[in-house]
Please model this.
Amino acid sequence: MNTSFIEEQFPVSKLSKECYKERKSSQGQTITGLGKWWGRKPLTLVRAAILGCLLPATADKQGDRATFLRLMGMDPNSLWERRKSLSLKSVLEILKEKNPVSYEQALLFVRRSGNRVLWERGTSKSERERFERAAWDTLSYDEKIANCVRPEEMENLGAETWKSINDYCDTSAHDLPSFIAELSKKRYGEVLSVGDCFAGGGSIPFEAARLGCDVVASDLNPIAGLLTWADIHLAGADEVTRERVSAFRQRAFDNVKAQIDALGTDRAANGAHALSYLYCVEVVCPECGWHVPLIPSLVVGARAGKVRAVLRELPESKSYAIDIVETDAKGLEAAAKEGTVNDSDLVCPHCHRATPIAALRHDRVAEDGTTIYGLRAWTVNEWEPRPEDVYQERLYAIRYERFIDEKHTERYYAAPDEHDVENERKVHDYVAAHFADWQKRGLVPSMAIDKGVETERLRRERGWCYWHQLYSPRQLLVLALLNEQVQQEQDIDARGMGLISLNRCVEFDSKLCMWIPLLDGSGHTFYNQALNTFYNWAARGIEALQSTWFGVKFNVPIHALVRVDLCDAREVHNPARLWLTDPPYADAVNYHELSEYFLAWDKSLLPSIFPNGYTDSKRALAVRGDEHFAQTMVEIYANLAHHMPDDGMQVVMFTHSSPAVWAQLALILWQAGLCVTAAWNIVTETDSPGLKAGNYVKGTVLLVLRKRTGTDEAFLNEVYEDIEEEVAAQIESMRALDDQEEPNFSDPDYVLAAYAASLKVLTSYSSIDEIDLDYELQHAIENPKDSQIVKIIEKAKDIAYGCIIPQGFDRQSWRSLTQAEKFYLKGLESEKRGDTKIATYQEFARGFGIAGYGQLMASEKANAARLKTPVECGERTFGDVPDFSHSLLRTLFAAIAAGVRADHDPRTARDYLKTELGSAYWEQRDLIRRLLAVLIDTRDIGNMKKHWAASADVADMLLALVANDGV
Model:
């Protein structure tokens, strides 16, 4: 069986940077515009996994890596081809700093025109590119990709790149699909087939199909199935299909806009059209009886112009008029503090008393301690509050746009006038007249909101029990009319596009869309992985909804063979040579609940996309982190193993880092008949609100697997010996491959490799004498501290930390340090490399067993963490870290701090050391020199300079004294 590239090496550093860039592009990503899904993996990562599995590993490891980077468009020449042109000003600034010789030469070809710098007339394109390339080649990888298109945006690699790839692989390809076809036929005798039974948003099937692989994709969830279908049939549509669906999309929107214009409900009295309608909840203050609008902040707009709301008392009705007025920065600052509600209380502007929201809702605690929520439950035919309900709803501001002349428009805010109130009445009457028919025809939902972790808050916080109740009358009107256009369309592709566009509008136009004054616009429902209710929200006018309806963009046409099904992963029956999956894990996101938000609108249209499918979320079958999770996963992965050839592969993606979760996954895959061959960690996630805390979203682990075909058995003591050898060999292999100038692996990568090495040994055996797999799996879930497998993986981590020794130390001197000293030195090493993530220090703290590591930190901010310097440590005690408090490094820090206080006198520092250490000073002089050497270069490193300058200067002088002491 031939080993694949991904089983021996993987350029995790470069891939992490490229994936992060893709994630940060937000709506600029290739398929995210099709619709909301939670946790799509970057296309760059999918491409890398597929190519890494297909490309064979050879004896020429450097050549393998260079070829892989070329295929990914991440080699130097491809980066140059991916670049967005540098301005002449940038070229000169870079050359002046990093290449003075070329800078002087470039000045001969430039001229100045006022404040502008221009190329001399007649300077050839090749001459201009010569200097641009000279500047480009001095940039770091990070600086280059900041000025590049993403790898998955490139139309093709350059001819020179393809020649290098073809020469190395003995192929004759001219693009990635032809390379995939040719190499896979050479290796397997057929085109590579890729399967994904957790298709989700469709990243894996889409990218696999774009690469030319045969694809079998499925998901239990109909919304996931719809998105995956759309990735292939819409984002990957050919020109004829694009023109057809584009024509429908334009026609449908124009028809709805004409109906809204005929009603006249989106126009002001002066003819301006509405962009946004701002609504809020209104309640009666139980203390004084006044009707109070619940608005968290009286700021209305702050971007184009500063606008605030002013509450004006109407004593005769015990209510408030809301005036919208222009203000200045101070007025805006004041308005931000003048809201009438916070997270927990109504703050009445009339009587100034605070009432808990729970009291307003009439929530109460039952005798058994459970909370009984007091809001009335809305019924299926209701779409607005009853007059007696606690929460009423009112319009309080409108953002309009009017034309001044043919070229100029004006946008402004206004409080609703009589004309606007009449428009609201028209909308109300129209919805009232048509609502029952709309529900009957499936134009608006009639689906109940089932209880769940996320959905229950809708009932608890607003009384909403049916999905249509999440929309105001205006929103229901527009969405029903759009849905009607989609249902009338007969062409399947056009109808599918209409369904995708409708779902986008459903997400961007609901009562769960917060108003964002700083943007003068509204957000969208799923800004995080939850269903959040708001006291004030925005509805979009038809003009503002246009960009949402037309937001789906097309991509390169896909010509691969693709099958998309709705089915349980345990019932997949289509074979694939490579199964690439991103399974739901431990309820990080409640996909089944959240997707019902869209499913409520799609039920009548989905059968045309999946004639043999279903239209519910299949909650009962969804993979969840309950007592059935482990067995469900075993059944799924055993089924996938059954549907791949003996030389096939699997790559499982997951985002956890705790040994217990590793143990659970290892046991699941082991029981499924799979063995681990490699694991790599790629940083794919940006900061994402709403996910659970803990081990979620620190990066994506790619666990590479093959079928276990052997029947070897072992005893536990033999396994420990094998793991120790495998971990050391794996780390040594990674170090030998690493580029010292631009490192690919960090310490967490080595620890991850240790985990993988331990799993590789464990899962290679059909059984281990002392381990009962069923018992261990349950133990790893319920009581991981006592699990044998967790202990084995923890042992592997300990071995790894014993191998990753900082520069300047040998194995003996490193072993002589306390765990706290090791924690500090490894943290300092990472800080020098620019890694200021608190997660890095947390990982080191876990690795070295330092519970109170926070005492050693000067900052624990998420992306600005750093250790205390010797001066900042001063004479402080470290009771939470006794291993550090009594260490040589702590004594050395106190000595340096004494030297700094004595006007940077190194002799004071040396004398302090001699006094504190006594005769041990002479015995530990070599270790003292090593420790001082580590501290000195901090004064020359970026942001470390300002903190470390004094400590590093004294450390430098002290090193000279210690080195020459007694000579």
In short: Residues 815-964 form one domain.
